[in-house]
Design brief:
Three copies of one chain form a homotrimer.
Chain A lengths: L3 H26 L4 H22 L6 H4 L5 H13 L6 H26 L4 H22 L14 H17 L4 H20 L19 H4 L4
Helix pairs in contact in A: 1-2, 1-4, 1-5, 2-4, 2-5, 2-6, 5-6, 5-7, 5-8, 6-7, 7-8
């Protein structure tokens, strides 16, 4: 039987890779060079986990101590360099890879918090922080308004759902590689469907109209 | 007699609430949705304290471990959602709530540093960092030039005054709930008066003129 | 004979001063006031080291505990205030001081990691993070696109070279005040030459053209 640790490491590495690709794609769209592509891929893919490790006081973040975590960002930058010269739909791809990272990181972040002895509420919060932290760093670093705050989009809710389900499964003793993949699938489907169907939640003030950014962006599906 | 710990917890929670309202107001002004409002309220109100706790190595920040700290941001987002649909003067309100948070956090941040055994200079610096850190995170996240650096405004000096007075009172053995409220009042009055009267300090280079943003913004009072 | 600790402290303080001047110069260019100048100088000069100390779990960052680290930012803000009123070429000066900070911080950051027992790869990564972290914070705080990601420039590679050489010298037992200055000279020369000659590396996607920002910025030398 496969141990939880191995499952966690693999989910984490795949999540790191997904986020790294989203970072390299943003670097490409912003006309950064190949070194900037590696750096932005590293910041987005390793930043969320670094915040998590610093918060739970787990010693130096794995990103610094375990060199295997450097492979995904390098791989992502190379992949984007060689394969995406003819790609037009950067935004769609960026959103899909970002959703993959989000789905996996809300699980691994929550689990790390639970196994280090935090209470359920704290574990959910830390899972969400891990999941949205890397993307937030990516958007702040590249001087963009963070996706996290895009009112035409749902980004944090899927991470809350994933962190909540992970905590529930853990306390019921049902967490395994299989149920982890199931939760990741739910989070990914929620995030991507919300994006394609342009689901949205009410604005920060009751009765305010959405505007400025175009009605089509709200009612219609996006590519 | 009320213990220092209880006074500190309440001052901290009220400060968290003030900063949270400023976050939700900025979210409203930037047309974020209700989830973004809760998140920005959380970042501004809990971010400064989280930086402080990570710096003094106090274990996981209270924001993650004590669920009571989640109530102010949720309350702030709800309040802004239901009460501010007809409000025009977001900027004034935002500044007032932000000043309230600043006044309380420079006290609680300094005290936490003093009680964890740091020297007076370090305690003042950490108090100021706690007080201005949340607002800085808020403005960076929302992709604005931080209020902290607005040359038409005085923002960091009141926090230094508050942290300095707190350190002085502590070392004289005069710190209590009463003197804490007094210091908070001084910091709040200094910050708000500087803002309404448009007090300012010299620019970063001697002999340079203020310009571009309008002379009226410097000499006249603002609403 | 001078101990490594003394060499390190001095290299660190000089690096802090260089970065602080770059912060005050950016504050001047962005029309911040004198308080904002001190704060931005502090953020850029002490931020990279604070990130390093938090990551290696070295207790509160020296910036908070050792008051001597407050002298360089104060000195830098005063210097810029009194001396630069007639200076036109802010960008050139900013780049030179920034390069000086980069050259010294990639050495001191790497050494701190090595002496706290990290492996060579982790030490190089932490050295680079220390060197580029302060400047990244400076540019994010001032709401600019980070120099680190400017595709017309080479910024991270010199830091990698410096961190790599430092690690090599350390493991060969050849690290001393003399070789440290040699490495700093190489990093500084690499960074400044790359900037003056407008060296660049390929963009993030193969076959893409540099454009928009002007061909002259790429092929010609800058002042």
């Amino acid at each position: 039987m496969i141990s939880i640790d191995i499952v966690l490491l693999w989910l984490d590495l795949v999540g790191v890779f997904f986020f790294a690709v989203s970072g390299s794609l943003l670097a490409a769209r912003k006309q950064f060079d190949i070194v900037g592509s590696v750096l932005l891929a590293s910041i987005v893919s390793l930043g969320g986990g670094a915040i998590r490790d610093v918060v739970i006081n787990a010693g130096p973040p794995v990103a610094f101590t375990n060199p295997v975590y450097l492979i995904p960002p390098l791989l992502a930058a190379l992949l984007v360099y060689f394969l995406f010269s003819s790609v037009q739909r950067f935004t769609s791809l960026l959103t899909l890879f970002d959703a993959g990272g989000l789905a996996l990181f809300c699980i691994t972040g929550t689990l790390k918090a639970l196994t280090s002895g935090m209470n359920p509420v704290a574990a959910i919060l830390l899972g969400v922080t891990t999941a949205v932290g890397g993307g937030l760093l990516r958007d702040i670093t590249a001087n963009e308004i963070p996706t996290l705050f895009d009112a035409r989009d749902i980004y944090a809710l899927p991470a809350f759902v994933g962190a909540g389900l992970t905590t529930l499964l853990w306390h019921l003793g049902l967490f395994s590689g299989l149920t982890a993949c199931l939760v990741a699938g739910i989070v990914f489907a929620f995030r991507v469907t919300a994006w394609r169907r342009s689901w949205y939640v009410p604005l920060a003030v009751r009765g305010w109209q959405r505007g400025g950014t175009g009605a089509g962006a709200i009612s219609g599906a996006r590519d």
